[in-house]
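task queued by scheduler; priority normal; single chain, no ligands, no partner chains; default sampling; output format set to structure tokens
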Amino acid sequence: MLSLAALADPTRRRIVEMLAQGQLRAGEIAQQFDMSPPAVSQHLNMLKRAHLVRARVDAQRRIYELDPAGLAELEQWLGGIRQFWQVRLDALEHQLRAADESEGRAQPRKPTARRRTNR
């Protein structure tokens, strides 16, 4: 999945976070980093190839925004991972309830009070 490889880089993650706030011109994005505009452009190109961002041309400027299609693909993949854990957590809950019932504690446990410590 190219989107995960693209997001492995902290600069590209930061660009995605910036674009989550709204559209930005390429120059505005480049100003946020201590690197050359061509280096930022390479990061933007990688994000475009991964379908995480898209660009539109306005005169001589490129305006970037998040690409919903690529983000939807990433969200779908994460949903499958969530399902993997949800099934296991449900099974664990079932086993814990069964253990409580076999010990005669069918009632839910009350949370223990935690003592506050001053730091």
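post-processing summary
- The radius of gyration is 23 Å.
- The chain has a mean pLDDT of 86.
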